[in-house]
Design a protein that fits this description.
Elements: E1 2-3, H1 21-24, H2 26-33, E2 39-40, H3 47-50, H4 56-62, H5 79-98, E3 103-105, H6 127-136, E4 157-161, H7 168-174, E5 180-187, E6 202-207, H8 213-229, E7 234-239, H9 256-267, E8 273-277, H10 285-297
Length: 298
C-alpha cells in the first residue's frame, strides 16, 4: 500500500528543487502501472509521536510563522501540518509492515536531515527516526503478525538510508541507541558535510563523486547485509533517489536498474520492511520510484 495525501502538493517555492511535481508526476504513473496497490490517507503525527525525536521548542518553532529556517528550508504557510502528515505517513508504513503488508510513504516534505532541534535540508521533522522510535515504544498498531517477532513487541529496528545525501538528522537522533542500527550510503564530500566516519550503532559509507555504479551497488549490498545481521524486527528505508546519475544535486552514478535491484533485495529479506521517500530531484524520479516498487514486489 501507498500512504499519500494530495495536500502535500500545496506548498512550493520558485525554483526550489523539492517541488510538488516530484510527487504530482509520480502518482498517476504508479496508479497506471500498479493498479493493485491500495492507496491510503495518512494520519498526521501527534505531539507525543513527534516528541520521541524532537524537542517541544522545535515543534512549536515549525508551527510558528517566521523567517526561513535556512536558505534551503523555507517557511511555508501550514508547513507544520504538511510535515506532520509526512511524519504520520512514515509511522503508518511501519505499522503496516508489522502487520505483514508492503508499505511506502509517497509524501513530502522529506525528513532525514531534520535534527532534534533544527529544520534543515528541505526537512522539518525526521520522519523515519520518528517511526523507528514509535515502533520501539509500542505505538498503537505495532503488534507483529508474522515472522520471528510475531506475538511480541518490536525490540530492534534497522534503518537503511540510500539517499545520496547523508542522513545526518536521523543519525543524530538515533546515535548510541542500542535498539537501532543505522546505515547511510551517500556522496562525500557533499551536503550536509557529515557522515565521514562510523561509530557506535552508526554505519556510514561515504562515496566519492563519480564512483562507478558497480562499486556503489556493492557497498549498498554490504550495508544492507550488515543491517540484516543485526536481526531487527523492522527494517525502515529512507529511499532517496538522488544517487541517480542524472540527478541535478549530486555526482553519483546509479541507474534505474540499480534502484530496481534495491527493491529486489528487500523482497528477499525475511523482515518487515517499510519505506519512506526522501530525496530525488531528477525529472526521471517517477520512473525510478516505479523501478524500485516493481523490484520490491517481484
Amino acid at each position: 500500500m501507498i500512504f499519500y495525501d494530495p495536500s502535500c502538493l500545496e506548498y512550493s517555492s520558485p525554483s526550489h528543487p523539492e517541488r510538488p511535481e516530484r510527487i504530482a508526476r509520480t502518482v498517476p504513473l504508479i496508479k497506471n502501472r500498479h493498479p493493485q496497490i491500495e492507496w491510503r490517507d495518512p494520519i498526521p503525527a501527534t505531539d507525543d509521536e513527534l516528541l520521541r525525536a524532537h524537542s517541544r521548542q522545535h515543534i512549536e518553532r515549525v508551527a510558528t510563522p517566521r523567517q526561513d529556517f535556512d536558505p534551503d528550508t523555507p517557511y511555508y504557510p501550514n508547513i507544520d501540518t504538511h510535515a506532520r502528515r509526512s511524519a504520520g505517513a512514515a509511522i503508518e508504513t511501519a505499522r503496516a509492515a508489522l502487520r505483514g503488508e508492503l508499505a511506502f510513504s509517497l509524501m513530502r516534505p522529506p525528513g532525514h536531515h531534520a535534527t532534534q532541534d533544527r529544520a534543515i535540508g528541505f526537512c522539518y521533522f525526521s520522519n523515519v527516526a520518528i517511526a523507528a522510535l514509535d515502533a520501539l515504544q509500542g505505538g498503537i498498531g505495532f503488534q507483529p503478525m508474522f515472522g520471528p517477532s510475531a506475538g511480541s513487541r518490536c525490540h530492534k529496528v534497522a534503518i537503511w538510508d540510500f539517499d545520496g545525501h547523508h542522513g545526518n538528522g536521523t543519525e543524530a537522533i538515533v546515535a548510541h541507541n542500542e535498539l537501532i542500527r543505522f546505515a547511510s550510503i551517500h556522496q562525500f564530500p557533499a551536503y550536509p558535510g557529515t557522515g565521514a566516519k562510523s561509530f557506535a550503532n552508526i554505519d556510514n559509507y561515504p562515496v566519492a563523486p563519480f564512483t562507478p555504479r558497480n562499486e556503489i551497488v556493492k557497498i549498498a549490498k554490504q550495508s544492507l547485509e550488515k543491517l540484516v545481521a543485526f536481526k531487527p524486527n523492522l527494517l525502515l528505508i529512507s529511499a532517496g533517489f538522488d544517487a541517480y546519475a542524472r540527478d541535478p544535486l549530486l555526482q553519483m552514478t546509479l541507474e534505474r536498474e540499480d534502484f530496481a535491484q534495491f527493491g529486489q533485495w528487500l523482497s528477499n529479506i525475511d523482515v518487515p520492511v517499510a519505506v519512506a521517500l526522501e530525496g530525488g530531484y531528477s525529472s526521471d524520479l517517477p520512473e525510478l520510484i516505479d523501478a524500485f516498487l516493481t523490484g520490491w514486489q517481484s
